[in-house]
Structure formats: structure tokens, C-alpha cells
């Protein structure tokens, strides 16, 4: 992406709140972010504050989601060993039994769980979810019956409502799902997973509303890593880069953040044009992960943005070696082209722009850059050929016609092959005339046509170019201030018109235009002397 953002970011101060430890992992699990949940639960398993029986239950459930029944059963057994009175691990054991097709054993474990948590709506909901996760069709009646039991135990239980919402979501009924999640929030305003699921449903319809809901959540649950991360992510997904960067800056102070989040934060800082901060963070992370593709990319792009082109070239040597070619974007290659161009390596830059166009051939800005690179490398024929693709594609602006006329002019002025030279001139005149038809009163367009006509005449002025230069003067004369603002353009026109008269031996008219030249540049002593000689010759010839 070339970056369109001008952001004013305030980096987050260190969090004043403490992290929630293993409870963050449980929240991630209940929000269906299983890998994130596993990371935190594993990381915090041996913390003094961790309820290991609970942690093992959720680790077991995650193993089941990953299809590993052996690991799951091991976790549930460890959970029972840690606290035999915790009914949830028996629910886990029952779910394993169901997956193995042993319904009798499953019923025994479900019975054991219910005996330890009589009329516990959350436990009954866990049982219903075990049936649902195993086979929603086969055990549909068991799911429905157990959900109803949970309602009787506590009709306001949020997790029962969340399960019902999940079922509606699976049935592709987002409106019904959102209503159930909203009821869960109504009955339990501190329930982070309910807010997250509600926001995820609404984000596709109304990102602003979903974000507002998550902002409300963070106000009441400021310690929740999930709440912090989800809000930062939604800002990011909604292109609210400044807010995303601030939110991520605060979130990564939470011990329960993930390494990838720091990478994302570095990217956001770059998008916000905080290049020093972004590069510093990327460099710190690269110490432990030197071949990380995204970190090397962001380090490279930061150096490009900082105009440290030599540093960017060195970083590029690493960046473009850490992945296969298909991993790189057109922006990666175009940025490398910019670096080489700035370092005066125009011919090498061409190859990078060619790669960029190959990745994204429909991006006309890249085609323009490639043509410009060829032009800088003095390969004018190729520069014109590439730019012609923009016009041929049909999606062009009037300025593209103007530029293309210039490309063909440059080609013609340097081409030794007569046929190619004449073809380039035909195209140059055609396209500049197209521009004149659209924009007849811009002196720069007439000026370019006059220059093209000079190339046509062997890089010498002619009567044809002279007439066009006179139209340049007429346009400039419409604003008296141009005599000062556009002095060089006047001088060019007067000089070439006078030169055209000299070539046909019309010294008198040449003197007229040279004197106009001197009105703008009265200190030009060599021209004064030359004009004086011309006047003397005119006087002598008139006798």
C-alpha cells in the first residue's frame, strides 16, 4: 500500500491496571479464539493465581477443537487431579466419550458433573455445548433439552444465551444471534465474550456501532486483554489507524499480549508516520526473530520513508531473501525501485518496477513509475512503449496524454533509426493535439507542441514551431504578472521565434523578438551585442 495517512498519534502510557492472568485465556476461549486462549492458558498454567482445574478444562476443550482426543482426555484428567470437585472436567470426559461413540460412559460422566453442580446453569450449558460440539444433528434433542434445563436453573444465565446465539449464528441468522448476545450482556454487563461476539456480528453491518459497544466494554472491563485487543483490532479493520495505534500501544503493556501484536503495532506506527518509533520496535523484535518477514518489511519501509536510502538498500538485502518471490507485494518492489532510483541506480530500478507491474499489472500508477524509471535510465523508446499501455487501457487522464507526448518527443529526439523517429514524432504530435483539443488555453501544452515541432525540424526552430510559440506568448499575455512569474517561458518563446527568423534570413523580425527577450533580461550583454550587429546589418541592407 502507498500510504495515505497523516496521523497524529499519542503513544499510550503504561497501563495502570494489572492483567487478569489465566482468566484472559478463558475469555479468549469463550470468544472462540482458541489458539490465543491456549497460548495464555499454557503461559499462565503454573502461576500462583491460576485455578489449574479450570485451566486444564479449557486446554482440554481446545485440544478437542483441534481433533486431539488423547491430549484432551489427559488435560481433563489433570483437571480432576487438581480439583476432583470441579464438575467441568467431567463434562470434558463425557464429550470425549461421545466422540468415541461411548454414550453410556458419557452419561455417567454427565451424571457425575450434575451431582457436583446441581442446578448450575453454566454447567448445564457446558453439557449442552458438549452435545452440540460432538454432533449438532444427532444430539439435537439433547442440546435442546439441556438448554431448557439451564433456563429453568437460571433464565438469565449469560452463557446459556451465548450458546443459543452461537447456534443461531451457525444457522446463518445473525440478527437472531445478535439479539441473544445482547440479552447476555443485559443480564451480565461484565461479560466480555458476549460483547465480543455481539460486536463481531454487528461489525459487518455497522462497524461504528460495533466499535462503540467495545469502547463501552473496555470502560467496565479495563483489565481484560481480550477487550483491549478486540477494540484495537476493530479500529484497525475499520481503517481508524490513529485510534488503533493508541489502543495497541496500551494493549501491549498487558502481560497477556502476543508477539504478533507487537508486529502489528510496529506496522501501525509506520502507517501513522511515526517512523522512528516503528523502526525501533521492529529492530528490537528482529533481534529474536531475524527472519520475520513482516518485521523485515516494516524495517525496510521505515528506512525508505526516513529517506535513509543506503540503509534501506542494506535492509532490502535481508528482506528480499527471507521469503519466496510470491510473498512480496507490488509496493515492496516499487519501494525498492524508489531506493535504487534515489541512489542513482536507474537501470537497476527498472527491474524492480517491472516486478511491481508484473505483480499488479492493472495498477496504472505502477505503470507510470515504470515508464518514469525507463525515462530516467534514458531508455526513451521503452518509456514511451510502457506509458502507451495506460492510454491503450482506456482508463487515463488528460495529463497522461500530455506525458505520453513528451515521452515520444524524447524518443524522437534521440532515435537514430529514421522510421522509428518518424513514428515517434507522429505519435507525439497526435497526443499533444488531443490535449490541445481538450485544454486549449494552457501555455504549457502549446509549449510542448512547439518543442516537438523543433525536434521534427532536427532540433531547430521553424516557421511551424514559431507559430505555436506565438500562441504560447498570447496565452501568457493574458496575465501581466506572467512577465515576472513566467519569465523563462517568455524567453524561450522569444528566442526560438527569433531563431526561426534568423534561419530564413529575416533579420528585422528577428530583432523584434530579440528585443522583447532583452526587455525581460536586460543584463544579457552578449545578446545586446548580437542584436546591435543585427540592427546594423538590417540598416545596411535597407539602403
Q: Which SSEs are present, and which pair or pack?
A:
Blueprint: H1 22-30, H2 34-44, H3 52-65, H4 69-82, H5 88-99, H6 103-116, H7 121-134, H8 140-153, H9 158-170, H10 174-187, H11 192-203, H12 207-220, H13 225-237, H14 241-251, H15 259-271, H16 275-288, H17 293-305, H18 309-319, H19 330-342, H20 346-359, H21 364-376, H22 380-393, H23 398-414, H24 418-438, H25 443-456, H26 463-476, H27 482-485, H28 487-503, H29 507-520, H30 525-542
Helix pairs in contact: 1-2, 2-3, 3-4, 3-5, 4-5, 5-6, 5-7, 7-8, 7-9, 9-10, 10-11, 11-12, 11-13, 12-13, 13-14, 14-15, 15-16, 15-17, 16-17, 17-18, 18-19, 19-20, 19-21, 20-21, 21-22, 22-23, 23-24, 23-25, 24-25, 25-26, 26-28, 28-29, 29-30
Descriptive terms for the model:
mainly alpha, disordered N terminus, 543 residues, elongated
Describe the protein.
This protein is mainly α. It is 74% helix and 0% strand. The protein is built from 30 helices and no strands. Helix 17 runs antiparallel to helix 18. The longest helix has 21 residues. 45% of the residues are buried.
Helix content: over 70%
Number of helices: 30
**What is the β-strand count?**
0
Helix/strand-derived category reads: mainly alpha
How would the global form be characterised?
elongated
Radius of gyration: 37 Å
Mean pLDDT: 92
Distance between the termini: 73 Å
Biggest sheet: strands, sense, closure? none
Q: Which ranges are low-confidence, i.e. pLDDT below 50, for 5 or more consecutive residues?
A: 1-18
N-to-C SSE string, H for helix and E for strand = HHHHHHHHHHHHHHHHHHHHHHHHHHHHHH
Strand portion, in percent? under 5%
Amino acid at each position: 500500500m502507498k500510504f495515505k495517512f497523516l496521523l497524529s498519534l499519542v503513544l499510550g502510557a503504561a497501563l495502570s491496571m494489572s492483567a487478569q492472568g489465566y482468566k484472559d485465556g478463558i475469555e479468549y476461549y469463550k470468544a472462540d479464539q482458541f489458539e490465543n486462549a491456549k497460548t495464555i492458558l499454557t503461559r499462565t498454567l503454573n502461576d500462583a493465581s491460576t485455578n489449574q482445574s479450570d485451566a486444564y478444562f479449557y486446554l482440554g476443550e481446545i485440544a478437542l477443537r483441534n481433533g486431539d482426543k488423547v491430549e484432551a482426555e489427559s488435560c481433563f484428567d489433570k483437571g480432576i487431579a487438581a480439583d476432583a470437585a470441579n464438575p467441568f472436567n467431567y463434562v470434558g470426559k463425557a464429550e470425549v466419550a461421545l466422540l468415541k461413540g461411548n454414550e453410556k460412559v458419557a452419561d455417567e460422566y454427565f451424571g457425575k458433573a450434575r451431582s457436583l453442580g446441581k442446578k448450575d446453569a453454566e454447567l448445564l450449558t457446558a453439557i449442552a455445548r458438549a452435545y452440540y460440539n460432538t454432533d449438532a444433528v444427532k444430539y439435537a434433542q439433547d442440546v435442546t433439552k439441556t438448554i431448557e434445563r439451564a433456563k429453568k436453573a437460571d433464565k438469565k444465565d449469560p452463557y446459556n444465551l451465548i450458546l443459543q446465539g452461537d447456534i443461531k449464528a451457525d444457522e446463518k441468522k445473525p440478527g437472531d444471534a445478535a439479539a441473544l448476545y445482547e440479552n447476555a450482556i443485559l443480564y451480565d454487563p461484565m461479560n466480555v465474550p458476549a460483547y465480543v461476539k455481539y460486536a463481531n456480528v454487528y461489525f459487518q453491518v455497522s462497524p461504528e456501532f460495533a466499535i462503540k459497544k467495545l469502547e463501552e466494554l473496555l470502560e467496565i472491563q479495563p483489565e481484560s486483554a481480550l477487550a483491549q485487543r478486540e477494540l484495537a483490532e476493530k479500529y484497525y479493520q475499520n481503517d481508524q489507524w490513529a485510534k488503533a495505534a493508541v489502543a495497541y500501544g496500551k494493549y501491549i503493556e498487558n502481560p497477556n499480549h502476543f508477539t504478533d501484536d507487537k508486529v502489528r503495532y510496529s506496522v501501525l506506527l509506520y502507517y501513522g508516520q511515526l517512523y522512528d518509533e516503528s523502526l525501533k520496535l521492529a529492530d528490537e523484535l528482529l533481534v529474536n526473530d531475524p527472519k520475520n518477514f513482516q518485521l523485515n518489511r516494516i524495517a525496510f519501509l521505515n528506512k525508505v520513508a526516513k529517506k535513509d536510502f543506503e540503509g534501506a538498500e542494506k535492509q532490502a538485502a535481508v528482506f528480499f531473501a527471507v521469503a519466496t518471490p510470491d510473498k512480496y507485494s507490488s509496493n515492496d518492489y516499487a519501494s525498492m525501485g524508489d531506493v535504487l532510483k534515489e541512489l542513482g541506480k536507474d537501470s537497476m530500478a527498472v527491474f524492480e518496477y517491472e516486478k511491481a507491474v508484473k505483480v499488479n499489472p492493472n495498477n496504472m500508477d505502477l505503470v507510470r513509475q515504470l515508464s518514469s524509471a525507463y525515462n530516467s535510465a534514458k531508455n526513451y523508446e521503452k518509456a514511451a512503449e510502457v506509458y502507451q499501455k495506460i492510454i491503450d487501457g482506456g482508463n487515463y487522464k488528460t495529463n497522461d496524454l500530455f506525458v505520453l507526448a513528451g515521452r515520444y518527443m524524447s524518443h524522437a529526439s534521440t532515435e537514430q533509426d529514421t522510421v522509428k523517429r518518424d513514428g515517434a514524432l507522429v505519435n507525439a504530435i497526435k497526443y499533444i493535439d488531443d490535449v490541445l483539443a481538450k485544454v486549449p488555453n494552457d501555455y504549457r501544452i502549446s509549449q510542448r507542441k512547439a518543442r516537438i515541432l523543433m525536434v521534427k525540424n532536427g532540433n531547430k526552430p521553424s516557421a511551424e514551431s514559431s507559430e505555436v510559440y506565438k500562441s504560447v506568448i498570447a496565452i501568457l499575455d493574458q496575465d501581466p504578472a506572467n512577465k515576472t512569474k513566467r519569465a523563462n517561458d517568455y524567453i524561450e518563446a522569444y528566442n526560438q521565434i527569433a531563431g526561426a527568423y534568423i534561419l530564413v534570413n529575416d533579420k528585422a523580425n528577428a530583432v523584434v523578438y530579440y528585443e522583447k527577450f532583452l526587455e525581460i533580461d536586460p543584463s544579457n550583454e552578449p545578446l545586446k551585442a548580437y542584436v546591435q550587429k543585427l540592427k546594423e546589418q538590417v540598416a545596411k541592407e535597407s539602403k
